[in-house]
Design brief:
mainly alpha, about 70% helix, about 0% strand
């Protein structure tokens, strides 16, 4: 019952942030530059060829999708609300993953209470714009949760794809796929580690 209440509060938190912040905007720094680069991609330009971009290319490509497929009337609203939901998913997966190693119920901490605190500490006053670090955290947290929670080969392969995508958002996420393989080797055994290495090798060769 207690966790159910925190579950409701947790999923309400992004809605509250969207109501409070997503209608206000212009950030007086560079938080809108991912959206600007995505707009350039939609108009036919490519990173490195047509404009300078010092990071891996995934974030501008990823956030070009809503600009490309959504009607003009709603695309900006989706762009400005997506980061809140992405951070909420990251916080939720963090709590679920941590619970696999240290059951939070043992410490009388509801999972969604932990996730709520993690979300609030993460979002703070972050402007409602796409950001490469959030993208990296999202793909990384999905991949980590999958390899911790599941043992099926196809899920391990999917997890490594997510970890690889995490590395394509920002240089600081480059070690994430390697750490995933190390975890598989130490915890799951050499077969999952070999599969993870093969998946990463195949993706890197594309």
């Amino acid at each position: 019952m207690v966790d159910r209440r925190f579950q409701v509060l947790f999923w309400l938190a992004p809605l509250v942030h969207i109501f409070l912040y997503s209608f206000h905007g212009f950030a007086d720094n560079d938080h809108g530059f991912i959206t600007a680069l995505s707009w350039r991609i939609v108009n036919g330009e490519l990173p490195y060829r047509d404009f300078i971009y010092i990071r891996p290319p995934l974030s501008p490509l990823l956030h070009a999708i809503p600009i490309l497929i959504l009607p003009d009337q709603i695309e900006y609203a989706v762009i400005r609300t997506t980061p809140f939901w992405m951070l909420a998913i990251v916080a939720w997966l963090l709590a679920k993953t941590l619970n696999e190693f240290y059951p939070l119920a043992r410490f009388r901490i509801p999972i969604h209470a932990f996730a709520l605190v993690a979300y609030l500490l993460s979002i703070q006053h972050f402007p409602p714009y796409p950001w490469h670090t959030i993208d990296g955290l999202l793909f990384g947290s999905i991949g980590i949760w999958l390899i911790v929670r599941h043992d099926r080969p196809w899920i391990v392969a999917l997890a490594m794809v997510c970890l690889f995508l995490s590395a394509l958002t920002k240089q600081s996420f480059y070690p994430v796929p390697l750490l995933g393989v190390i975890y598989l080797l130490l915890i799951k055994g050499w077969r999952p580690a070999l599969l993870g290495t093969a998946v990463l090798g195949g993706l890197a060769g594309l």
